[in-house]
Amino acid sequence: MAGEQTVRVDGRRLRLSNLDKVLYPATGTTKGEVIDYVSRIAPLMLPHLDRRPVTRKRWPEGVEHPDFFAKDLERGAPSWLPRLPIDHSSGAKDYPLVDEVASLVYLAQVASLELHVPQWRFTDAGERGAPDRLVLDLDPGPGVGLAECAEVARWVRDILDDMGMQLFPVTSGSKGIHLYASLDGSQTSDQASMLAKELARALEADHPDLVVSQMTRSARAGKVFLDWSQNNGSKTTIAPYSLRGRAEPTVAAPRTWDELADPGLRHLRFDEMLDRASNLGDLLAPLAPARTAPLVPYLAKRSADRTPEPMPAAVSPAPVSVGAAAGASDDSRRFVVQEHHARRLHYDLRLERDGVLVSWAVPRGIPDTPDRNHLAVMTEPHPMEYLTFAGEIPAGEYGAGTMTIWDTGRYDLEKWRDDEIIFTLHGTPGGAADAARLVLIRTGGAGEKSQWLLHRMKADAASPRLRTATSTTPATTPAPAGDDPEAGAVSPRAPMLAVPSAPGPARAAASRWGSWVEFKWDGIRALASWDGERLRLTARSGTDITARYPELTGAALGLGADALVLDGEIVALDAAGRPSFPLLQNRMHLSKPREIERERERTPIDYFVFDLLRIGERDVTGLPLRDRRRLLEEATAGARAPLTVPPRTDDLDAALTAARELDLEGAVVKDPGSPYRPGVRSEEWLKVKLTRTQDVVVGAIRPGKGGRRGGIGSLLLGIPGPDGLRYAGRVGSGFSDIELARLEAALEPLRTSENPFVGIPAADASDALWVAPELVGEVEFAEFTPGGILRHARWRGLRPDRSPADVTREE
Question: Which residue windows does the record flag with biased composition (Low complexity) (predicted)?
Answer without folding.
Answer: 461-481
